[in-house]
From TrEMBL:
GO molecular function, one term: zinc ion binding
One of the protein's GO biological processes: L-histidine biosynthetic process
InterPro entries in alphabetical order: Ald_DH/histidinol_DH, Histidinol_DH_CS, Histidinol_DH_monofunct, Hstdl_DH
Upper lineage: Bacteria, Bacillati, Bacillota, Erysipelotrichia, Erysipelotrichales
Source species: [Eubacterium] hominis
Binding positions (substrate): 234, 256, 259, 325, 358, 412, 417
Name recorded for this polypeptide: Histidinol dehydrogenase
Keyword Oxidoreductase: yes
Active-site residues, record numbering mapped to chain: 324 (proton acceptor), 325 (proton acceptor)
Classification via Pfam families: Histidinol_dh (PF00815)
Length: 426
């Protein structure tokens, strides 16, 4: 099921994968722009109207009460709740290590300067609704914000046809410490977060996945608020040596292929016999998957394999592709980790499947896709802070260094800049 390509064509594979990015059509941009402008002007009235139009239910009050959250969460399976509690501890453990401190630097003549690390005031988390429900994403988005010190974390999610909140999403929100929830989705939900309404005060940053209309809305409100990223189709790249278990390799490739017909699953290996065994496993395992049709479509177009001369060569090609998930399914993964330059997250060894990171291990599963791991990072505590510098000069310091500053201002023909120092030199 993996079509083999020559290693000389790895650059073409990279371009092919990046072409999966779904271009947002001008029609969608126009539609979403109108919705956002309507929400900006009419606020609650527009939000309620669009919720009725797109979600099929009219909610005069779309703010979720604490009692409603508790009621929904009470229907969760006990083992699911225990699993989520353990996952939360792991996610907190990892993200607590990311906290940063500011600094103060002392210099001569009474000069001091430094940097403060400050949490954002407020963050909005978009949680998809409908048949898809991802409580793990609630934890992955909310916990780093909590660790960063964000005081107000808002969650929005589309209502069901009955106007209810999914029990798993309600429990995840409670567990993550989110107590401000609104039943609104789509572009209108993004507009409400960005511009605010009578019911929902605006936020400073919006994170979380959504459909093409949500993605378009996030792009359009960027600048008014910050956003996390515009995620593309999911992807996994497995680097495997001859000792890798083909059943493990196949199952990990399929774990991403089931996401989306445009998801990519790539195997880089030094063993032709492993590739043959993996293809046989893919056929067997695909046959029993509920999402067989999606998997087959994904593998048909984006399931690829390259046989390399060495693991080092495999990692070099992986760096060109810069995958969202990179598995080093090799005997000594630490020996190769230092060679990895571009990957959203790296999973080490034969037993560390990507699913562990998705749900439980503690590393964040909100990752850069479509080659953007070349220049961007996973969601983290850093995503929810800002840095502000400060500077102090005494009269003695201005007298000593003012002439240099004046010279630089005058050379840039900014006389008022220069004068601001000159008046202090008199």
């Amino acid at each position: 099921m993996l079509s083999e390509i020559k290693k000389e064509n790895s650059e073409e594979l990279k371009a092919y994968l990046e072409s999966r990015n779904e271009e947002i059509s001008s029609d969608i941009i126009v539609t979403v722009s109108k919705i956002l402008e309507d929400v900006r002007k009419r606020k609650d009235e527009a939000v309620i109207a669009y919720t009725e139009k797109f979600d099929g239910i009219r909610l005069e009050n779309y703010c979720v009460s604490e009692a409603e959250i508790d009621e929904a969460a009470s229907h969760c399976d006990p083992f699911f709740m225990e699993s989520m509690q353990k996952a939360k501890k792991n996610i907190e453990f990892f993200h607590n290590a990311q906290k940063q401190n500011g600094y103060l630097l002392q210099k001569e003549k009474g000069i001091y300067l430094g940097q403060r690390v400050l949490p954002l005031d407020s963050v909005g988390i978009y949680v998809p609704g409908g048949r898809a429900q991802y409580p793990s994403s609630v934890l992955m988005n909310a916990i780093p914000a909590k660790v960063a010190g964000v005081k107000r974390i808002v969650m929005i999610t589309p209502p069901s046809k009955e106007g209810s909140l999914h029990p798993n999403i309600a429990y995840a929100a409670k567990l993550a410490g989110i107590d401000e929830i609104y039943k609104v989705g789509g572009a209108q939900g993004i507009g409400a977060l960005a511009y605010g309404t009578q019911t929902l005060p605006p936020v400073d940053k919006i994170v979380g996945p959504g459909n093409i209309f949500v993605a378009a809305a996030k792009k359009l409100v960027f600048g008014k608020v910050d956003i996390d990223m515009i995620a593309g189709p999911s992807e996994i790249l497995v680097v495997a040596d001859e000792n890798a278990n083909p059943a493990y390799v196949a199952s990990d490739l399929l774990s991403q292929a089931e996401h989306d017909p445009m998801a990519s699953a790539i195997l880089l290996t030094t063993s032709v016999s492993l590739l043959d065994a993996v293809n046989e496993e893919l056929r067997k395992q695909t046959d029993v998957l509920p999402k067989k049709a999606i998997v087959e479509e994904s593998m048909k177009h984006y399931g690829k394999a390259i046989v390399c001369d060495s693991i080092e060569e495999c990692v070099n090609i992986a760096n060109q592709i810069a995958p969202e998930h990179l598995e080093l399914m090799v005997e000594d993964p630490m020996a190769y980790l230092g060679l990895v330059r571009h990957a959203g997250s790296v999973f080490m060894g034969y037993y560390t499947c990507e699913s562990i990171g998705d749900y439980f291990g503690g590393t964040n599963h909100v990752l850069p896709t479509s080659g953007t791991a070349r220049f961007s990072s996973a969601l983290s505590v850093d995503s929810f802070i800002k840095k502000s510098s400060f500077l102090h000069y005494t009269k003695e310091a201005v007298d000593a260094y003012g002439s240099y500053i004046v010279e630089m201002g005058e050379q840039e023909d900014l006389q008022a800049h220069a004068n601001a120092v000159k008046v202090r030199l008199k």
